Amino acid sequence: MAFTLYDIETAPEAVAKELEASQKAFGFIPGLHKVLAAAPEVLTAYKQLHTAFQNTSFNSTELTVVWQTINYYHQCHYCLPAHTGIAHMMKVDETIISDLQHGKELQDDKLRSLQETTRALVDQRGNLTEEQVAAFKAAGYGEQQLLEIVLGLAQKTISNFANHLADTPVDEPFQKFVV
């Protein structure tokens, strides 16, 4: 089911400035933002969650691990290629980018722990076992990072589910990353 894709001229007045900011930040208005413009509060919330998640203790690679683990789990046709392109822009290691895009286990122990914990949080709806939490902490993470994964999950749930509903077309700059 295709949703309306709004632009600055056709968007509800309450969200036009958000789309202008998207245009300025990306050089184009991402399709997800065009879809979310139908509900101005959702677009604003999504963008705020995105910014907040980028300001967590995670570095670029770790942000990508969380985003792509969730995107892969939800099989988001839009976010997987978009975040693959973003990961390249963030200069994440090529092997990590590819492994995440294809749902493969990461080779780095700490990153694999982040990947496994993120997947478990999604799959188990936040109900991690004591053993899972202990393993995550043994890898060098803590309670702060567990909660930060939840923040990333909130962001990705909005985008993944909205993209499923809207069948959002993949933006031209990310087309080459569609698998």
What does the model show?
With 179 residues, this protein is mostly helical. The chain has a domain at 59-177: Up-down Bundle (AhpD-like), CATH 1.20.1290.10. Helices cover 65% and strands 0% of the residues. Helix 4 packs parallel to helix 7 (109-123), helix 4 crosses helix 9 (143-166) and helix 5 (79-89) runs antiparallel to helix 6. The model has no long low-confidence stretch (mean pLDDT 96).
Task: Report the total helices.
Answer: 9
N-end to C-end Cα span = 21 Å
Secondary-structure element string: HHHHHHHHH
**Helix-strand category:** mainly alpha
Shape type: globular
Helical content (DSSP H or I, runs of 4+)? 55-70%
| Spatial extent as radius of gyration | 16 Å
CATH class of the domain at 59-177: Mainly Alpha
**Model regions low in confidence, pLDDT < 50 over at least 5 residues:** none
Query: Tally of extended strands?
Result: 0
CATH superfamily of the domain at 59-177: AhpD-like
- Oligomeric form: single chain
Observed structural traits:
mainly alpha, AhpD-like, 179 residues, 9 helices, 65% helix
Write the layout of secondary structure elements.
Layout: H1 13-26, H2 31-36, H3 40-54, H4 60-74, H5 79-89, H6 94-101, H7 109-123, H8 130-138, H9 143-166
